[in-house]
Amino acid sequence: MSDKLLDLITIGESLVEFSTNQKLENAECLHKYYGGDSLVTAIAAKRLNSKVGFITALGNDPFKGFLLNCWEKEGLNLDHLKHVDCKNGLYMVSRAENEEKEFIYYRNKIAPAKLSIDDISEEYIKNAKIVYASGITQSLSLQAREAVKKAFTIAKDNNILTAYDPNYSSLISTKEDAREYFDEIIELTDILFMSSKYDTKSIFDIDSLENIIKAITDYGVQTVVIKSSMDKGYFVNNNQRNTVFVPFYTDHVIDTTSSGDAFNGAFLHATAEAYSPAEAAKIASIAAGIQAQGIGAVKSLPYYDEVYKIYKSEE
Q1: Mean pLDDT of the chain
Q2: d(CA 252, CA 169)
Q3: Domains in the chain, start-ordered, CATH in brackets?
Q4: Contact at 8 Å (CB) between 189 and 163?
Q5: Which of 19, 141, 143, 284 is deepest in the core (most CB within 10 A)?
C-alpha cells in the first residue's frame, strides 16, 4: 500500500463550535471554533503528518468561508467536498468549573445530511490505505448511511482497511438506531473502536470484556479497541490474540470533548505507518491525552514532534 496517495479518508460532518467556561444560561460571550467527530479524527491524523482526505458537504451560510479556510489551513485533501445550498450544523458546549459539561446540538437537516452514494468515488477510495466513518455519520440521514456503506464496500473489495466507531450519544440517536447502524456496517469493518461507557452497553447486552471482544471478532473484525474510562485505558485485541492494555497517557484532563476522536485519528495514522495495534494505541493515547489537557475539539490536537518526542522517550 506504499503507493497510495492518501493514508486516511474520513467521511462525516463538520460542526461550528461555540464554547464557554460558564454555564450556558449565564454566558455573555461564546467562542467560535469547529468540531465534528470525523473531522477531528481527520485533523488528528493530519497533524501527525498523515495524508488525509475528508468527505463532507459544506453548507452555504455565513460560516462557509470560516470552515473551508480552517480545513484548507490544516492541509486536508478536499477533492471530494460537496457544496450544498443549506445550513451548516453547530453545537454549543459549556465547561463551567465544578459543573457538569453542557452540550447542545443543532444538526437537523444540515449540509452533511446531503451526503449520498454519488459523493463516494471508487477511484478516490481505492487510493487510500484506510477509510473511516462513525455511527454519527450514519445518523445524519438515510442517504449518508448509504454513502458510508458504499465506501466501506469499495474498500473491502479492494483490500483497503476500514475503521468504524459507533460513537453512540443519546443526544444524537437512540440505542435501537445505534444497534441498527452497527449491524449494517460491522461485517465490512476491519478496525473497531468502542467506548465501554457508552457503545458496548448500548449495542451489546454483555458485561464481560472477553465476551464482547469475542462477539465482535466473530464478525470478522481484525482489531478491536475498547476505551474504558473506568479502567483508565484502552483494551486492544488483534485477531483474537491476547488482549493488551494501554493506560491513559495522563489522569490530568481539562476537557475530554472529542478526545476519543483524537485517539482514533492518531491510531489510524500509526496503523497507516505500519505500527502494531498495541504500539498504535500507545501513540494514540499520548495524542488523546495531550488533546484532553486543552480546550475544544480541535484547538489542542497535538502535532507530530510533540507526540513522537514523548513516545520515543517512553519506548
Answers
A1: 93
A2: 24
A3: 6-314 (3.40.1190.20)
A4: yes
A5: 284
